[in-house]
Amino acid sequence: MAETKPDQSSEQDDECSCWEVDWKSPELAWHIKEVHPLLLKHEAKVTGGRVNLRVLVPLCGITVDLLWFANRGHSVVGIEYDAKGCQAFFELNDIAFETEPLSDEYKVFKGKNKDITLFQCDFFKFPSLVPSMKSSFDVIWDRAALRTTVSEPEGSDAKAYLSVLRQLVAPTGKLALENTRFNLQDCTSPHYPGIVSDEMVEKLGKEEWNVSKIDQIEFEKGDGVEPFYRQFKHNIALHFLTPK
């Protein structure tokens, strides 16, 4: 196990420079610099007012929600495919960490003074890579993860994604699902996030989950929490999914 501390050096090789642009740039279109407002607003409902919960944040990137959960007294696990993203999270938050192999191709990043563990791996392989974590998470916080899997009209990737989460959630746990939606006709770019409507959440979750809508907040053009969406009028919805 190799201990690593945040690198304060200004000298970086080409690979690290590329990573700086990808993960430390203040212009990341999907990154929210503050804790998500719906998470703050509904903390009591998300956690049930409890501490010492095991919390999973899938496709976590460098979200500050990881640190927020840990600071609130929870044991936090993130799943992120890019090792540079895992490293960037700890360095951006000045958290010393250590790494160990998860498999021949994947690694685990563990905070030294924060109860945060990031698994660098293929999300869909996680249950087989770490079978001890099946049915173990009290809370799963999905912030913008599900919508990245909505690539086909039938939502087959999204169904597979939710099925993995169903394997990981505790019998009495919950999935807190955030989705941002906008009018696709307002977008001229060929590259845009998936849009997950209330109806799609119900359809995708009906076989394995009980679905309830908790809240929805509206934003006018120029406003909002996620940089990409500020160019549109949009809304953010929060659903709770509990295992059937």
Explain briefly what this protein structure is:
With 244 residues, the protein is of the alpha/beta class. It has helices spanning 14-23, 37-41, 43-47, 65-71, 83-92, 126-129, 156-168, 198-205, and strands spanning 2-4, 54-58, 75-80, 97-101, 107-111, 116-120, 137-143, 169-182, 209-219, 234-243. The protein is built from eight helices and ten strands.
What's the helix and strand layout?
Elements: E1 2-4, H1 14-23, H2 37-41, H3 43-47, E2 54-58, H4 65-71, E3 75-80, H5 83-92, E4 97-101, E5 107-111, E6 116-120, H6 126-129, E7 137-143, H7 156-168, E8 169-182, H8 198-205, E9 209-219, E10 234-243
Parallel strand pairs: 2-3, 2-7, 3-6, 7-8
Antiparallel strand pairs: 1-4, 4-5, 5-6, 8-10, 9-10
Helix pairs in contact: 1-5
Name the descriptors:
29% strand; cytoplasm; 2 domains; 8 helices; 10 strands; Rossmann fold; thiopurine S-methyltransferase activity; alpha/beta
Low-confidence segments, given as residue ranges, are 1-21
Task: Domain count, please report it.
Answer: 2
CATH architecture tag of the largest domain: 3-Layer(aba) Sandwich
Q: In total, how many beta strands?
A: 10
Assign the CATH superfamily of the largest domain. Vaccinia Virus protein VP39
| CATH topology annotation of the largest domain | Rossmann fold
Q: Briefly, what CATH class of the largest domain?
A: Alpha Beta
Task: Classify the secondary structure makeup into a structural class.
Answer: alpha/beta
Strand content: 25-35%
Count helical runs.
Answer: 8
Give the N-to-C terminal Cα separation.
39 Å
Q: Level of helix content?
A: 25-40%
Keywords: Cytoplasm, Methyltransferase, S-adenosyl-L-methionine, Transferase
Enzyme class: transferase
Organism: Actinia tenebrosa
Family: Belongs to the class I-like SAM-binding methyltransferase superfamily. TPMT family.
